[in-house]
Every structure is written in C-alpha cells, then in structure tokens.
Specification:
108 residues
Length: 108
C-alpha cells in the first residue's frame, strides 16, 4: 500500500540534489490534468527569488525528511494554463468547477 502524504506536509519540505545538497523547499505543487488528473505531477521549489519545476518522475524518494531527486534537469517555473497549482486560491476555484462537470476525477 502506498503511503499518503498531504499537501500541507509537502509544503516546506527540503529538496536535495543527487549529491545531497539542498536546492530549496517545496513552495507549491500542481496537477496537470492532461497527463494524470489525480496525481501531483509538478513540485514547485523555491530557491530564493526564482522557482524551479520538478516533475514527479525526477524524484527518487519523498519522506517527511525531504525530497531526494534522481534527475537534476530542473526548469524555471512559468505560468502554464494546463498546470493546476494546488496552493493558489484561483486553482482551488478552477478545481471546484472541474469537479462540478467531471465527477469521474473528483472524490465523492
């Protein structure tokens, strides 16, 4: 059985590169419904003034001690209309609208 991690537990988790160096903390997460409507697909990592985007398949492990990467090809974050950020109020409103029209991807 997979272990469940809540969004509030993800926020602020340290993110480490392949050598164990801290590259930032999780500032937000996002779904990309076109890829998978129920899995967190992107992690937004704040490393100062800029955010980096980490895809779920670039992660080796996720624990309460931090996120360890298996791939260091990180990209700068930019707004994307296909990405549904979990932490933003606008995203929660859009998710509510999607749930109203698509009951197959929303919890009952």
């Amino acid at each position: 059985m997979e272990e469940l991690l809540y969004f509030t537990e993800l926020l602020g988790l340290k993110v480490y590169d392949l050598r164990g160096r801290r590259i930032g903390r999780v500032a937000d997460a996002a779904l990309v419904p076109l890829i998978d409507p129920s899995r967190v697909d992107r992690y937004l990592v704040g490393g100062g003034w800029a955010w980096l985007t980490i895809r779920y398949d670039q992660i080796r492990t996720v624990t309460l001690d931090g996120i360890h990467l298996q791939d260091e090809r990180l990209t700068p974050y930019h707004e994307d209309e296909y990405m549904l950020r979990i932490g933003s109020p606008a995203a929660r409103f859009r998710w509510t609208l999607i749930c109203d029209t698509r009951s197959d991807i929303c919890p009952t």
